[in-house]
Amino acid sequence: MAPPPVALITGANGEIGRSLLERLHADGRYRVVTLDLTPLPERFRPMCHETYAGNILDRYLLDQLAAHHEIEVVFHLAALLSTRGERDPDLAHQINVEGTLHLMRMAQQQSARLGRPVRFILPSSIAVYGLPSLDEKAAHPRVTEGQFLEPITMYGCNKLYCEHLGRYFMRHYRSVGPVAANARLDFRALRFPGLISADTVPSGGTSDYGPEMIHHAAQGKPYACFVGPEARLPFMAMPDAVRALLQLLDAPAEALTLPSYNVGAFSLSAQEFAERVKRAFPGADISFAPDAGRARIVDSWPGDVDDARARADWGWAPAYGLDRAFDEYLVPAVRTRYQG
Ligand code: AKB
After folding, report:
1. Among the four 11, 174, 233, 236, which has the fewest Cβ within 10 Å?
2. Are 90 and 221 contained in the same domain?
3. What is the CATH number of the domain that holds 111?
4. What's residue 83's pLDDT?
5. Ligand 1 atom closest to Cα of residue 202
């Protein structure tokens, strides 16, 4: 029997990466090769066919990876998130855009070599949107994929451009001559809301106040939220995020009508988030100390997304709505994590 195909995960050591790795390992459908700047912790290594510690900007390393493995699927998760990106926009551009370009080129060459399209999955973000004012945000509670594409962060600009880059490689890339359809990248992206994992605390993002609030409360630590109580964002529980990635991966190409899809789950204000957390952890000490820069970014992102296209084209539906996300996933899992 032929061994399972190879899937490459970049940024495997991050929040989404670790959850995706566990799920792919449980499914056994792929031999997983990982790439991350930092070595994967010991407990994740047996889940991998091979692990590489290195920089996405290292073209020699990417060539080596392609030479050693017949990669059929790429989950490109490596990125510098929005808050971190504003602190070092040049670095964000290098990692988020140049790194993605290198990887797309590698995957494109791999498609040509294998004679079948490599599926390239990019998690994009609500950061691609830039609502000009809170009035507009209130007037457009659920944005569609084509609205307000004027991001105010380097990370948002990078993600939006990389969506275009993927579309370019999939539909228009010519190299030195025509490229056969079976030798093109099969690019697919989804725009994630703020993600919340019970296992990890994110770093460098601007939606991080949600997960930070619940992880602090579970540890009995006070938390000063860096946006005001009225700030509203869409969020999603990590198991749904992983399911969305795999569902999009498996969708038949003919069913897809967009290169990049909104996926939603639930929306709530920072105040509502705090109330949910306090309901589970009554002693939680949560205050609000807005940071003007980060609050402005959150204000520019939509309060929720319209994900009708993902629902119609590839059957997206979140398994974790607001109640289930907190009551059946986040609260029990976070409690177990910190309280043993
Ligand atoms: C961030 O806050 O930068 C990310 C995102 C919404 O893409 N979590």
Report:
1. 174
2. no
3. 3.40.50.720
4. 98
5. 8
Specify whether 177 is located in the same domain as 278. no
| % pLDDT > 90, the chain | 92
Nearest partner of 95 among 57, 123, 121, judged by Cα: 57
- The number of beta carbons lying within 10 Å of the beta carbon of residue 178 is 8
Q: What is the pLDDT of residue 250?
A: 98
Whether residues 68 and 208 share a domain: the answer is no
- Report how far residue 292's alpha carbon sits from residue 187's, in angstroms, rounded to the nearest whole number: 36
Interval 3-50: pLDDT, tens: 899 999 999 999 999 999 999 999 999 999 999 999 999 999 999 999
pLDDT band at 176 (very low <50, low <70, confident <90, very high): low
Kindly give the distance from the C-alpha atom of residue 207 to the centroid of ligand 1, in angstroms, as a whole number.
5
Dist. CA 202 → ligand 1 center (Å): 9
Cα(111) to centroid of ligand 1, in Å? Answer: 30
Closest CA to 50 of 74, 68, 63, 38: 68
Which residues, at least 6 apart from 87, have a Cβ–Cβ distance to it below 8 Å?
Answer: none
Cβ(194) to ligand 1 under 6 A?
yes
Residues 69 and 80 in one domain: yes
Q: Which ligand 1 atom minimizes the distance to the CA of 207?
A: 2
**CA-233 nearest atom, ligand 1:** 6
The yes-or-no verdict on residue 183 having pLDDT over 80 is no
Classify residue 12: in a domain, yes or no. yes
Q: Identify whether the C-beta of residue 152 lies closer than 8 Å to the C-beta of residue 85.
A: no
Q: Are residues 28 and 163 in the same domain?
A: yes
Residue 313 belongs to some domain of the structure: no
Written as six digits, the tokens of 108 are 């494109």
- Based on the domain organization, do 212 and 163 belong to the same domain? no
* Dist. CA 48–CA 9, nearest whole Å: 10
> Which pTM was predicted?
0.96
Its domain, for residue 275, covers 195-236+265-302+321-339
Decide whether any atom of ligand 1 lies within 6 Å of the 110 Cβ: no
Chain-centre distance of CA 182, in angstroms?
A: 27
Take residue 65 and report the two structure tokens written for it.
């990876």
